[in-house]
Each structure stands twice: as structure tokens, then as C-alpha cells.
Write a structure and sequence with these properties.
Length: about 100
């Protein structure tokens, strides 16, 4: 079993920062970055769980739901990651999105 703690900690921190961000920051870019990452993680998890199937896109539930969406998608992804390299890649993606979001 792969230790996905680094991923869950990174995404928990990102989600907490998003929840604490002012509405203006969410409107500028933070919510869009979180949704993009959530969609990326959802596609990744689906490709592992259902190889060859057309991925379903996570809907945009609004800027105030973005933190929850990225959190759910990352935790779903954590369940299907196969090795430490994938975990490190996912953590890197969370950190990059957090920096782009400015939170």
C-alpha cells in the first residue's frame, strides 16, 4: 500500500487556504485553479479505475465549492495511486496550483 499522506496533507492545506481566501481572490484566479486541479485529479483517478472509458468532467459548482471539489478529487485519487512517484507528482501539482492561485 502506498503512503498518500503527503498528498492528503498538501491538498488539505490548499483547501484550507482557499476557504480562508477573500472572495476577490477566489474570483480572480484561486477558484479557477482549484477547479482545474480537481478536474485533472478526477480524470486521473477515472483513467486508473476505468481504463479506456471516456472521463466524466467534474461540474463547476461555484467558487465557494472549489475547496471542497479539489479536496474530494484528491482524496479519490489518493485511493488509486500505485507508487510513491505518482504521489510525489500529485503533490507537485497541488503546490503548483496553490502558487498560481496565490493562496
Amino acid at each position: 500500500m502506498v503512503d498518500t499522506t503527503p498528498l492528503t496533507q498538501a491538498v488539505d492545506h490548499f483547501a484550507d487556504r482557499l476557504r480562508a481566501a477573500p472572495q476577490s481572490r477566489l474570483q480572480r484566479s484561486a477558484a479557477a485553479e482549484a477547479l482545474a486541479l480537481a478536474r485533472e485529479f478526477a480524470r486521473w483517478a477515472q483513467s486508473v479505475e476505468e481504463p479506456g472509458a471516456d472521463p466524466r468532467e467534474m461540474p463547476d459548482a461555484g467558487m465557494f465549492a472549489a475547496a471542497d471539489q479539489v479536496l474530494v478529487a484528491a482524496h479519490d485519487l489518493a485511493l488509486v495511486l500505485r507508487d510513491e512517484g505518482e504521489v510525489a507528482d500529485a503533490v507537485r501539482r497541488v503546490e503548483e496550483a496553490r502558487k498560481r492561485a496565490g493562496v
